[in-house]
């Protein structure tokens, strides 16, 4: 209602941050590093950049105002909103940059970007000279890249006299940030929130999707107007929830209609924008923890909190990160309930008990840097000539073992030498915005003469799955899909899909005929052309192997030789490094076409009740041997390093 009747100027002036605009700018003027804390929705993300812009922090070649976000969705949606508020076309004065998508021009003064993008920029511009101000937004999320940026920006602030660094956070952790930046001042934006009633369940739900659907239905039928926000774990759970809820509502005719809206990071951006559109009927938004603080939704009066989220966790057993559904922390739970009290008093339904909250949930999240693989970060820091990682200024240092594990992986790939210093190959690899194994695949492809093919495969692996199975037409789509499969390799299947599409003039019709997401394939094409540019800059030769697919499989093997498995019996493999049993995932071409080669490599493991290899390619054991020291264990590597340093 408010957004429809008030002008943009009135909306901006209504935000809590507006009442402290002058003091805030004064505080920025007086300090090099400033911590700003305020409730979600107070206007930090959308207003701060504009205030700085209006006060000439970005005029006359002074550089840009950069604002980092831990999430891609947030960077894009906020940039859109601010462009609208300023009244410019997106990409002009206000733009955004996320991996593989740069929507900025030479006119851009306010740039929203993911923290990963800024981190990469620091590779080639260590003092971040392009920027007059850098806002590290949503710092409380403690994403991996944000945590690394903390250390880097602290150094930049010491070297550059003319830079302003602002750290913003929801109302937690500000003291910790201030301590890290040598006692930087904290500016608090006064809050304007309404009381939220908390309703615990008697016990944790057995099936949280089911419980959330029931609760949403009950709220919709019994409670006065106001939107519902459900916190779910990830895309699959969100889709099921939306479907079940829609079915339940459709089956009961007397219920008023409701608009059901999913939101998660892989959702198409025009679908994402729908959550901000006004609606006459009640909205029910089903979200990941992106809606906790990154996106501000007005009009929510009811929050349904499942108590879970999906996070990336390093699994030492399998030697890689895996997404895991985990209980949230108490801090998350409180942020979630706060979403119900933005525009009026609200209610938060927690699908777990008071006891669960007090005894099963940690007080705060474990920062990502302490629970994920650091290969990317280590490579980046090494190429910034930060050699002794154990001495790097981390707010919360990662476990030493994780650092050493990541170094071991990089050493296997040839990015580090035996003394742990970066190699020429490592420097080259750091220039690619990809996980090290994927970059390695590209570089080997250069040696083998199949870069064109590997560029396609790597691009296909960098987007969500291109296949879809519409409900009710599963068999039909499976049959069509089967014709595109290449029996010995899912990677070659991905290549084949792209090549067929290209042969058909990149046609949309071809995609819908083959149950393939055209938008995703177009994205692949874009990613591919960007990677191709970087490959050219790095002097890789752009060559095709002319259907000599053994070369392609060999390049794939060079990247994944640590992810190799040997057949044990029908359907069963043994992981060569960990000796653990694993299977080919049913979505694989090898599974579908009943192909069971002796040796395979895989892109990742999916953990359910069993371990499944996903995206699998058959390989020649000779290639695996050539790849070198794969039976050299992490332990031996440590020993080796220790010997050398003595
Ligand atoms: P904070 O960063 O302090 O949580 P924001 O600056 O994100 O606050 O949000 C301030 C206000 O801007 C919100 O209350 C909301 O009304 C509005 N807003 C933010 N993003 C959008 C958007 N994409 N579309 C419409 N309104 C938005
Ligand atoms: Mg914000």
Automatic annotation (TrEMBL):
UniProt catalytic activity: ATP + H2O = ADP + phosphate + H(+)
This protein's record includes keyword Coiled coil: yes
Residues in the signal sequence: none
Domain Helicase ATP-binding: 25-190
Gene Ontology biological process terms in this record: mRNA processing; RNA splicing
GO molecular function: ATP binding; hydrolase activity; RNA binding; RNA helicase activity
Start and end residues of each Helicase C-terminal domain: 212-385
Name of the top EC class for this enzyme: hydrolase
Keywords: ATP-binding, Coiled coil, Helicase, Hydrolase, mRNA processing, mRNA splicing, Nucleotide-binding
EC assignment: 3.6.4.13
Domain of life: Eukaryota
Similarity comment: Belongs to the DEAD box helicase family. DEAH subfamily. PRP16 sub-subfamily.
Record's protein name: RNA helicase
Classification lineage: Eukaryota, Sar, Alveolata, Ciliophora, Intramacronucleata
Boundaries of the shown chain within the full protein: 410 to 1055 of 1126
């Amino acid at each position: 209602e408010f957004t429809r009747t008030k002008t943009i100027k009135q909306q901006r002036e209504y935000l809590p941050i507006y009442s402290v605009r002058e003091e805030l700018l004064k505080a920025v003027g007086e300090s090099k590093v400033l911590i700003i804390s305020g409730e979600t929705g107070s206007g930090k993300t959308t207003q701060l950049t504009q205030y700085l812009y209006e006060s000439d922090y970005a005029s006359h070649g002074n550089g840009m105002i950069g604002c980092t976000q831990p999430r891609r969705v947030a960077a894009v949606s906020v940039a859109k909103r601010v462009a609208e508020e300023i009244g410019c076309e997106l990409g002009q004065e206000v733009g955004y940059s996320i991996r593989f998508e740069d929507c900025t021009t030479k006119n851009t003064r306010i740039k929203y970007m993911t923290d990963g993008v800024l981190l990469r920029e620091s590779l080639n511009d260590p003092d971040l000279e392009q920027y007059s101000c850098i806002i590290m937004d949503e710092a409380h999320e403690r994403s991996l890249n944000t945590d690394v940026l903390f250390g880097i920006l602290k150094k930049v602030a010491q070297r550059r006299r003319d830079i302003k660094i602002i750290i913003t956070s929801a109302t937690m952790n500000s003291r910790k940030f201030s301590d890290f930046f040598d006692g930087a001042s904290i500016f608090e934006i006064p809050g304007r929130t309404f009381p939220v009633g908390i309703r615990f369940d008697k016990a944790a739900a057995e099936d949280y999707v089911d419980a959330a659907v029931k609760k949403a239905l009950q709220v919709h039928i019994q409670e006065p107007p106001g939107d519902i926000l459900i916190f779910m774990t990830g895309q699959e759970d969100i889709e099921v929830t939306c479907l079940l809820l829609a079915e339940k509502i459709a089956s009961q005719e007397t219920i008023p209609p409701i608009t059901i809206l999913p939101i998660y990071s892989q959702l198409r951006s025009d679908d994402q924008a729908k959550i901000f559109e006004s609606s006459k009927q009640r909205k029910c938004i089903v979200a990941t923890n992106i809606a906790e603080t990154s996106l501000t939704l007005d009009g929510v009066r009811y929050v349904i909190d499942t108590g879970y989220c999906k996070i990336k966790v390093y699994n030492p057993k399998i030697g890689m990160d895996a997404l895991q559904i985990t209980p949230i922390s108490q801090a998350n739970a409180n942020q979630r309930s706060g979403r119900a009290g933005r525009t009026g008093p609200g209610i938060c339904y927690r699908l777990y008990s008071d006891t669960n909250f007090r005894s099963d949930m940690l007080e705060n999240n474990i920062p990502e840097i302490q629970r994920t693989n650091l290969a990317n970060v280590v490579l980046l820091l090494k190429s910034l000539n930060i050699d002794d990682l154990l001495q790097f200024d981390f707010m919360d240092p990662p476990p030493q073992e994780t650092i050493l594990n990541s170094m071991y992986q990089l050493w296997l790939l040839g990015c580090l030498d035996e003394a742990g210093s970066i190699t020429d190959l490592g420097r080259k690899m750091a220039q690619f915005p990809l996980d090290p194994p994927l970059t390695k695949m590209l570089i080997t492809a250069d040696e083998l003469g199949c870069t064109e093919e590997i560029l396609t495969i790597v691009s296909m692996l960098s987007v969500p799955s291109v296949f879809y199975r519409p409900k009710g037409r599963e068999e039909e789509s499976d049959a069509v899909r089967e014709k595109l499969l290449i029996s010995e390799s899912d990677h070659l299947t991905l290549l084949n899909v792209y090549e067929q599409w290209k042969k058909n003039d990149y046609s949309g019709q071809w995609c819908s005929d083959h149950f393939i997401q055209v938008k995703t394939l177009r994205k692949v094409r874009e990613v591919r052309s960007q990677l191709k540019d970087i490959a050219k800059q790095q002097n890789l030769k752009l060559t095709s192997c002319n259907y000599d697919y053994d070369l392609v499989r060999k390049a794939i093997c060079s990247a994944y030789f640590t992810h190799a498995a040997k057949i044990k019996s029908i359907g069963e493999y043994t992981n060569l490094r960990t000796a653990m049993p694993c299977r080919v995932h049913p979505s694989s071409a090898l599974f579908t076409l009943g192909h069971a080669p002796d040796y395979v490599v895989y892109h990742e493991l999916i953990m359910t009740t069993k371990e499944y290899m996903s995206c699998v390619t058959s390989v020649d054991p000779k290639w695996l041997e050539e790849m070198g020291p794969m039976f050299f264990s992490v332990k031996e590597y440590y020993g080796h390093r220790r010997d050398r340093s003595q």
